[in-house]
Amino acid sequence: MQFHTIQPLHARRRSVQVGRGGKRGKTSGRGGKGQTARAGHKIRPEWRDIIKKLPKLRGRGKHGLKSIAEKPITLSLALLTKAFPRDSSVTKEALRAAGLIRKSDMMRSIKVRGAGESDVRLSLSGIGASARVRRAIERGGGTIQE
Fold this sequence. Notes:
Layout: H1 46-53, E1 73-76, H2 77-83, E2 88-90, H3 92-98, E3 110-113, E4 122-125, E5 128-129, H4 131-140, E6 143-145
Parallel strand pairs: 1-3, 2-4, 3-5, 4-6
């Protein structure tokens, strides 16, 4: 074996020089000085501060996925037929006067539900109704305006 016949085991690879100009100059791909230059640096995301300011929904318990939207006040059609005479107009004010809803419920939505009778003749305005009640009122000759 002679010195000029020796072959290297691996191909010659030049090590990448950083921080000496070229494509990886100045900060050598490490960003600026200070917190960003340190190993293990961690900058808090801006949106986390926004999330931290929002109140937690405490006391939701096992019903955490249940909607917190306000449910409409439900009234039965049988109750309306007893409280109002035939061919009368039913509004929130009329329901309040009849004692079916409280003054605090005037801002909430109201929906009429229940099995319908065929001879119901009422005109509902500003009050929701289920499909079954709608059919019963329209079959009896009444009207519904939401």
